[in-house]
Design a protein that fits this description.
Blueprint: E1 2-7, H1 10-20, E2 24-28, E3 31-38, E4 41-47, H2 52-64, E5 70-79, E6 89-97, E7 119-120, H3 123-136, E8 140-147, H4 155-165, E9 169-171, H5 174-183, E10 188-196, H6 202-227
Parallel strand pairs: 1-4, 1-5, 5-10, 6-8, 8-9
Antiparallel strand pairs: 2-3, 3-4, 5-9, 6-7, 6-10
Helix pairs in contact: 1-6, 2-5, 3-6
Bound molecules: adenine.
Adenine binds at residues 76-78, 151-153, 170-172, 195-196, 198, 202, 206.
């Protein structure tokens, strides 16, 4: 099977590249794609750059050019649910775009005609994630992840996103990747480790905990790949 492993930032895929050891690099569409064999699988690994547009391009490329049959996203997120502390892992049940707003036309936040507010991730991959968590003796939460082209560092904004979408965490790529995978019928999973809690200290916390949280998520994803 060809498995895509995607992050948004170099820090999110470096631990994965270290773990696979050797790989080939393909330059395409102003980005680098790293390919290798891993057990019986073919892997294609990339970071997209931050945000919904770059992550859409990368997810579509991983599927359409590199033939990914499954897409696993690994990275960090800001926590909304108070039960999520820095370093904790969350797997998305559903994803939505918190910055998509045509409410002026009577539509709900996050909705455009012929789209959907929420996109569900693959149930079997989520079950696999919980099996891996059990094996690793780790706590894994699941919940709604809200995506937008904003780094959220405001208690008010965070509360609004939490209330409007019942979201547990927020980040900047998951829902756009979900839209691509859903449209192209590729099973996907979005896993995030908390780097900050999207409040006043978010910028400082993000810089302090990015590397460690990104590695926690990446290690988990690679343990999942080993069981697929
Ligand atoms: N990713 C990690 N923390 C974030 C935050 N506070 N806002 C948006 N994306 C994030």
């Amino acid at each position: 099977m060809t498995i895509a492993i995607m992050g948004a930032m170099p820090e999110e895929i470096e631990p994965i590249l270290k773990r696979v050891g050797s790989y080939e690099t393909v330059v395409y569409a102003q980005n680098r794609y790293f390919t290798c064999k891993f057990g019986t699988h073919q892997l294609v690994i990339a970071y997209s750059k931050i945000g919904k547009v770059f992550s859409t391009l990368t997810a579509a490329t991983l599927i359409e050019k590199f033939g990914a049959e499954v897409l696993l996203f690994s990275g960090v997120a800001g926590g909304i649910n108070p039960e999520l502390g820095i370093g904790d892992l969350i797997v998305a049940t559903q994803l939505c775009q918190h910055d998509l707003d045509i409410t002026a036309f009577g539509h709900p936040y996050g909705y455009v005609p012929e789209g959907a507010v929420f996109i569900e991730s693959d149930r079997r991959l989520r079950e696999c994630a919980f099996d891996v968590a059990l094996e690793m003796g780790m706590t894994l939460k699941e919940g709604i992840i809200a995506t937008g082209d904003q780094f959220v560092a405001s208690p008010e904004k965070k509360a609004w996103i939490g209330k409007t979408f019942h979201a547990d965490a927020l980040e900047m790529e998951g829902a756009s990747v979900a839209v691509v995978c859903d449209a192209l019928e590729v099973p996907f999973l979005v896993l995030r480790a908390i780097s900050d809690t999207a409040d006043m200290d978010a910028g400082f916390d993000f810089e302090s905990f990015l590397e460690n949280s990104a590695k926690r998520s990446a290690d988990f994803i690679m343990n999942m790949v080993e069981t697929l």
